[in-house]
What we know:
Chain B: It catalyses: 2 pyruvate + H(+) = (2S)-2-acetolactate + CO2. The complex is a heterodimer. Chain A is α/β, with parallel strands linked by helices. Chain A is built from 23 helices and 18 strands. Chain A folds into three domains: 2-169, 3-Layer(aba) Sandwich (Rossmann fold); 183-351, 3-Layer(aba) Sandwich (Rossmann fold); 366-536, Rossmann fold (3-Layer(aba) Sandwich), CATH 3.40.50.970. Chain A has a six-stranded parallel sheet with strand order 2-1-3-4-6-5. By secondary structure, chain B is an alpha+beta fold. Chain B has two domains: 5-102, Alpha-Beta Plaits, CATH 3.30.70.260; 109-183, 2-Layer Sandwich (Alpha-Beta Plaits), CATH 3.30.70. In chain B, strand 2 and strand 3 (70-79) form a beta hairpin. The interface between A and B is large, with 55 and 34 residues. Residues 387-391, 414-417, 440-443, 466, 468, 470-474 of chain A line the site of thiamine diphosphate.
Amino acid sequence: MVVQALKDQGVDVVFGYPGGAVLPIYDEIFQDQGIKHILVRHEQGAAHAAEGYARSTGKPGVVLVTSGPGATNAVTGITDALMDSIPMVVLSGQVPTFMIGSDAFQEADTVGITRPCTKHNWLVKDTDALAGTIHEAFHVATSGRPGPVLVDIPKDVQFASGTYVEPREAPQGHYNPRVKGDIEMITEMVAAMETAERPIFYTGGGVINSGNVASQLLREFVEATGFPITSTLMGLGAYPASGKHWLGMLGMHGLYEANMAMHGCDLMINVGARFDDRITGRIADFSPHSAKAHIDIDPSSINKVIHVDYPIIGDVGHVLEDALRIWKARGRKVNKEGLAKWWAQIEEWQAINCLTFKNSDQIIKPQHALQRLEALTKGHDRYICTEVGQHQMWAAQFLGFEDPHRWMTSGGLGTMGYGLPASIGVQVAHPESLVINVAGDASFLMNLQELGTASQYDLPVKQFIMNNERLGMVRQWQELLHGERYSHSWSEALPDFVKLAEAFGGKGIQVSDPADLDDAIMEMIRYDGPVIMDCLVEKHENCFPMIPSGEPHNSMLLGDASTQDAIGTTGAVLV
Amino acid sequence: MSALKIKKGSSKHSAYDLRNPNAEIIETHTLAVVVDNEAGVLARVIGLFSGRGYNIESLTVAEVDHTGHRSRITIVTTGTPQVIEQIKAQLGRMVPVHRVQDLTVEGPSVERELALFKVSATGEKRLEALRLADIFRANVVDSTLESFVFSVAGATEKIEAFADLMRPLGLIETARTGVAALTRGPE
Ligand SMILES: Cc1ncc(C[n+]2csc(CCOP(=O)(O)OP(=O)(O)O)c2C)c(N)n1
């Protein structure tokens, strides 16, 4: 029945790991070849792989785990999906209903544990309700602001027979978030756009979640108005990096021009972003002279952090469609004079070239490694995942994304160990594409067991490890905030990554000389199978620009700036 | 603005000051939340409050529509206007929540609470307790030669006032239902 429900929901692949409490479902999977099951090596890997699948396809990722440790192992991945609004359906086994509450073997209060980290969850106690609940779970995961849901299924409920209902016969819950924005408010926003002297689009993951139409509309709007556009980490690719109005990513490690433009704008149009603290810096000084519009499908995102003047609750795609139509009908007006001055100012900021770094012919600079990776993979049908740390920020700065769904990174939760399993999920969804995980040495070790999964299913994922033998981002903070006391922030006893790759049946490449870098990257791309590229980079490079925690946008640190004492004592308590 | 401003020294504000309780006036609001009466729904609502650091002054819950399996949760909460708005939005987006009503702003409304007070007293104090109970229209629902259990219904302030008066007379135990509230008028 479970497999039937999944098939009727259009599921073609499940990431899972068996155990006592889900054996009946695994038995169904064995007998019904309609669904592909990817056996991961750890349940956290299953959840991240499902995220990678979901993020790269726009379809919900499906996870199947057993009770107790199976479910608790998945919790980090579920929380990650919640923070980044990734649609995911987790099915977990549970001890039989008559044993719930008895501290039975491998019993955990899964619904209780996952209540705060799912959008919603259910414990199904009656087989007749099983199919309907699974259908509702898919509905909740994918509608409104997407997110993870969990259905906990006791073993006796899996065994018993009950009546199956198809998706369209399933009882419709009342959950139906509104997608159309308020037309009057949209019109007010459009009117503000017509006169603004220094407007900016500030876009986020909501554009990507809304679907490809939303990205298309955004592009059309940006081109037609000539407004500059920046994006959060989660929104990269909604507007192409090669687009002429693109300012690059904003935020703590965002580009100088993007942050300065956010600080100096007079109209900010937030499209599907949430004024996260990595973006705003010091709240009191956040973009002090701007009127702000905020388009978001989640009412609780509006006015949560920043007070806005034009709150528009609705799906980004629907709202942009209405806004564009209204703007056209009113005569396609913009403040040409103001915009010309604004762009002149922005070009001054761009001329600072905030991503400049000192290259070397002795040692590979991480920024250089990414520039070469970008240059050598640009034309490819390419998907990029990352782990978490400096390498992640450099990847966001130095790689260009032309389309949505091409960039998978753990933004809200910042989960080290995300990238490798996520790359597996992406490769499962796109078997012919080039899937690269830009990793740090420390993050990579957090879920390296998934190399076994890559090997088993012939998934040619490329693990591009920027090995600085440091917990680089931690080291950077200790340098800037903790008097260069490097407490436990280096990677000792690292494995030989080449041998590690070989041990798992893949290929290992190590490179340390900048002169060999291109060849090594080409070798990685050309190899038909999983590769670990151990790219030995400068150990003490810092990631700039950086807005220290608790500082406003215009107090950015650039690479060549003196960074000592830059972060105040109040800032130091922030993360 | 184009000058490169690299700031040194300490900063006074941060995102973490957002919920600074002294930043704005703290208001008390009574919210009525209609939910599906399904397993765990109360834990969900309470978890939202504890997880996000909101206050609960009073909370009552009971199924009010048996055929539709709907429960009504009445929550009295405090916070700055911004926090109150957040609480409503956060409640509103929960899957089992049908409706969130802010009775404090949608008012006028009536708010009632029921409380039971056990008072142990003899002699003059016992008589005084009875007299006061009469003034507050409290009912005696249990009595022994040295104790009473009073039942009082009314607005929270009335209950508080009655408790204050009973304390010196020998109040030994209190049970309160928390606030139930409805808007006034036909709607
Ligand atoms: C699971 C988890 N634990 C701890 C952290 C805190 N943290 C953030 S970045 C980082 C260092 C990452 O080091 P590495 O993967 O080598 O990347 P680098 O910064 O050197 O590029 C740590 C420990 C985290 N984000 N996630």
